[in-house]
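Note to self: the last two entries modelled the partners one at a time, which told us nothing about the interface. This time every component goes in together.
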Amino acid sequence: MTGPRYTPLAQSLPATVPFVGPETQERQRGAPFLARLGANESVFGPSPRAIEAMRQAAGGIWMYGDPENHDLRHALADHHGISPDNIVVGEGIDGLLGYLVRLMVAPGDAVVTSDGAYPTFNYHVAGYGGAIHKVPYSNDHEDPAALFTKAAEVGAKLVYLANPDNPMGSWHRGADIVTAMDALPDGCLLVLDEAYVECAPDGTAAPVAADDPRVIRMRTFSKVFGMAGARVGYAIGAPGLISAFNKVRNHFGMNRIAQAGALAALHDQDWLAQVQTRIASARDRIGAIARDNGLSPLPSATNFVAIDCGRDGAFAKAVLEALVAQGIFVRMPFAAPQNRCIRVSCGTEADLNAFATALPQALAAARSA
Amino acid sequence: MTGPRYTPLAQSLPATVPFVGPETQERQRGAPFLARLGANESVFGPSPRAIEAMRQAAGGIWMYGDPENHDLRHALADHHGISPDNIVVGEGIDGLLGYLVRLMVAPGDAVVTSDGAYPTFNYHVAGYGGAIHKVPYSNDHEDPAALFTKAAEVGAKLVYLANPDNPMGSWHRGADIVTAMDALPDGCLLVLDEAYVECAPDGTAAPVAADDPRVIRMRTFSKVFGMAGARVGYAIGAPGLISAFNKVRNHFGMNRIAQAGALAALHDQDWLAQVQTRIASARDRIGAIARDNGLSPLPSATNFVAIDCGRDGAFAKAVLEALVAQGIFVRMPFAAPQNRCIRVSCGTEADLNAFATALPQALAAARSA
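The predicted structure of the combined assembly is written out below.
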């Protein structure tokens, strides 16, 4: 008897996971982590108003969420001073990237990204059969000019750029991105992932019109808003592009509690400001811990810090594994030369104390390996 | 300047919504519904233990959910007496159907369903370019023999069958489905949607082995478990098929609060039994209201009742619209001859009192139209 008949594309795909989750690692090591600093979650949590809104919404979970995400889209439109027609809400940036790739990328279509940039974007491109072309980072920064030149060269339909960048924490001024966009080839859409922009200096968000047809910007409640587990992201773009998501999205896919929580979180800008302050302090502390151990923290406009361990990827990986063995969950860049670093998310004082205690032992273990 | 370049398939798709949500209708009419009886949600709500678990989980929403859904998959495996390798958890049955279609259906591939069956399945098939072939209902029942014969005739990769059926509420004995599966053609996967099976008579669930490679069964926390807004569904199938979902699913797509709620809901089988009793009572009441108005309720193994309005689709639609105008949210089948019915979800006593009050006026309005 024949089994199910997969598409040729599906047959060709590996059953990979873009990231191994910390819970999986905890089950493997048989103990919980002491500090969860690997997924750039916000340990400072969401606004208490968001928590309260989610608790209030729990009893109403018997109802499907509003498939139009009306209230959240309108609140976001007010917040950004744009039209609700410029906004699509989805199941995190990951979900929205999947829909976007599906709309644009057929087997063989060219897509450009940086070597070592967000793997989940690559996962979606590969999943729809796209051909990924990569350009190197430049001095630990994504390189808009190189990305757009490569996009022109290969006739890319999409080019991905995160600003600020994950995993390096580096950033460009938004105005510089816009200037670089002059070289964006006709018919190539810039996917500008601004997941971390709320913890970046003023002027990092790209000053582009919401109707600009050359770019779609991705935003999220997973990072500074502290709601990674809620799966709420949104994209800002020209109305025609935004409405195209209605062709493919899971219309009733949004969790109703998450809708309520995101709405409340957006309205608590005081909490956002507090978190921004805590992130800045935690970045300083991570930097100080790194320097105390003879390592070089990279400047960061995100809620994490990449720490240059001073040798190659194998050494950084040994440091990381020794940290994980001590109960400190961190991650690291995948590609050279960025993989000379480990990536440490902003934590509470207790989290960072645990990291400070574990790091010298991890370095010693890596050096003696 | 050229805009973004969509795939030919994406260009061909309409920006449709499988269902208009009740919130959209409330905004259009400028008033909330008195009774929300259109989406087969469970007005009886989730287990109080699930609500409490979700409230407790709200503060931890800063963490991504476990991408393996380990605890829930293992609990479901225990519940069903199968292996966790037979279970994939996803963003509702809608999300899982999307992944399944993506794995199997390339442009032009044949898929079979019943004319008037679940539109969201058709939405996914169309979205991946599949060719949908339909067979008629037989006496308001889905017709397994006709479905499988058609599947053989067109070389279908997938055939969809809901048992119990939505929108008619009719059902087959599970053993009869299994017998009919002898005619399922080689290489055609049966998608057996058992979303409503927890409110059906014993013997409705198909007695197939979890490893049977011919079938994938869909289950959900959206119906009898009262958690539609949480977006938690799961599929049961052979391990190879189940692991194929890892090629395409949004690994971090599950809401963390929803994971906690579903786990608690599964463990409260007493609540499930209470809801089953209330559903049975509400079905009886809907039937009595229908008969009081000279209409014919159809037998139902679901949490809704299809009511035969005794004339054609235009008449039933007029009844429906008059109910909606009075604040009673109901829906109706899309295809003839089933569209002579309206479909009324089980409600609270207050909900059904409101329906009982509105129905005579709605019928009068429809008859005078």
